[in-house]
Design a protein that fits this description.
The chain has a single domain, classed as HybD-like (Rossmann fold, 3-Layer(aba) Sandwich), CATH 3.40.50.1450. By secondary structure, the chain is of the alpha+beta class. It has a three-stranded mixed beta sheet with strand order 1-3-2.
Length: 82
């Protein structure tokens, strides 16, 4: 899964977190649904996340998140190509 997550890092920082790391260290509205999906699919989930600059309703995507999305796309391509 890919998402923006407030981790206390510099905006645009890209991290890979396992679900238990997210559930143990952060509170987000995503936690219950991610745990449910992992249980339903009987799988491990890896969350590729980027630190957002802005999280306010209606905020545009920041330059840092745009650049982070390019890095995440490259990382996904690398992971999926084996």
């Amino acid at each position: 899964m890919v998402d923006a997550v407030c981790m206390g890092e510099e905006p645009g920082t890209v991290s890979a977190l396992e679900l238990h790391e997210l559930a143990d260290s952060l509170f987000t509205t995503h936690n219950p649904s991610l745990v449910l999906w992992a249980d339903l699919l009987d799988c491990d989930l890896l969350l590729l996340c980027a630190e957002p600059r802005n999280t306010g309703f209606g905020e545009r995507m920041s330059v840092e998140i745009g650049k982070a999305s390019d890095r995440i796309a490259d990382l996904l391509e690398e992971l999926l190509s084996g």
